[in-house]
Amino acid sequence: MMKILWLTNIPSPYRVKFFNELGKKCDLTVIFEKRSSSERDESWKNFQLDNFKAIFLSGKSVGVAEAICFSIVKYIKKEYDHIVVTNYSDPTGIIAVMYMKSKGIPYEIEGDGAFPTLKNNRLKEAVKKFILSKSDICFSTAKMHDKYYIVNGVSKEKIVRYPFTSICKNEILEGPVDSEIKQQLKNQLNVKEQYMILAIGQFIFRKGYDNLIKAASYLNENYGIYIVGGEAPEEYKEITKKFNCQNVHFVGFKKSEELTEYYKAADIFVHPTREDIWGLVVNEAMAKGLPVITTNKCIAGLEMVQNNVNGTIGEVDDIQYLVTSIKKCCDKKEEYALKAIETAKQYTIDSMVSRHLEIWDNKGKNYVK
Fold first, then answer.
1. How many CB atoms within 10 Å of residue 20?
2. DSSP helix/strand/coil, 261
3. Which residues contact 83 (CB under 8 A, 6 or more apart)?
4. Residue 363: what pLDDT?
5. DSSP category for residue 363
6. What is the DSSP letter of 75?
7. What CA–CA distance (Å, rounded) separates 175 from 234?
8. So which domain of life are we looking at (predicted)?
9. pLDDT in tens, 74-125
């Protein structure tokens, strides 16, 4: 059986899900820098490590999800068929890569996504470019991610594409939710409006919910905006008051099972992000048959959303785009829902695992343009 060593920072729920499935197909060991991130909720601390060996390092914390762990080197051995590094920008990942280079041990790079922009710190950029360009394989989620690798000196022949997701095949609906069942769910959730527009995420500036609230002021009482993401900060409540948005509803933190009910009850999903290197909520919304409205700074949107087919893509901070798209997607929700589910079926944990095994079997000779 193939032996795989995976280096990462914390056990995020979507990655643990992937590791548990991948571990069924190979001898998998995953090394974590820390047990959790200081900026994530309790759901990120509840994980089951069923089908792989997990090692948690002890080191000095240097960020919300990063640590310096020199002990990483004692676990890196030539006996592994593949060593994958996802924490290559963290101190621990850098230590691991430099050690592997000194010992002639090949390594591979994987990330959730990235935009091909260069930062001002020349030293950090030089280190990153060295690490990426010297890797054997770079796992990419999207065209934009490919460009990021190429900007950092990676040759096209080393780049391989894989379907990134948090959804298993059995979590994708066979078809759109029946209108009667959807209405029953709306009643249970106390949704009064004809159309339920759903958004899920952290209340931070980058997510763009201030723009969604402003867009709500241009919609009549038939449209209800439901933002799920914990306690809304005062600034968001103030924006709601300022624009007299009585159709905006802040919903507290919801567990996974509860979120499923919201997805099924909703008519469309809006992710007005200013930047997301992927955006797993897009996968999750499409899996439940929701048309997705997002921006050209959401890599999941750029890869999965087809304009006027299963949703829309527009410019960041364009309020009128959000207003027009919400109306359009609500009008075509049944048509777009079918296409959304078709798209979601191409992005499953099952296919994510299969793709990694295929790449390893072929030693990375499957570059996807």
1. 18
2. helix
3. 4, 5, 6, 7, 76, 100, 105, 106, 107, 108
4. 58
5. T
6. G
7. 39
8. Bacteria
9. 999 899 999 999 999 999 999 999 999 999 999 999 999 999 987 778 888 9
pLDDT, position 65: 73
User: Residue 208: which region, alpha, beta or left (left: phi > 0; alpha: psi -120 to 50)?
Assistant: left
Topology of domain 3-165+348-362 in CATH is: Rossmann fold (3.40.50)
Question: Could you give phi then psi for residue 117, rounded to 5 degrees?
Answer: -115, 145
Give, in degrees to the nearest 5, the angle at Cα 119 between 117 and 125. 100
Maximal C-alpha separation, the chain: 65
The encoded tokens of residue 283 equal: 């996968």
Instruction: Please count the other Cβ atoms lying within 10 Å of the Cβ belonging to residue 126.
Output: 10
C-alpha to C-alpha distance for 124 and 61, rounded to whole angstroms: 19
β-partners of residue 161 are 140
User: Residue 6 is which amino acid?
Assistant: W
* Nearest of 158, 143, 151, 89 to residue 299 by alpha carbon: 143
β partners of residue 83: 5
Domain boundaries, the chain: 3-165+348-362, 169-345
Give the separation between CA 331 and CA 223, rounded to whole angstroms: 12
Q: What is the pLDDT of residues 2-55, one digit of tens each?
A: 999 999 999 999 999 999 999 999 999 999 998 865 555 555 556 788 999 999
Quick check: do 3-165+348-362 and 169-345 share a fold? yes
Cα–Cα distance measured from residue 349 to residue 341, given in angstroms and rounded to the nearest whole number: 15
Structure tokens at 173: 């609906």
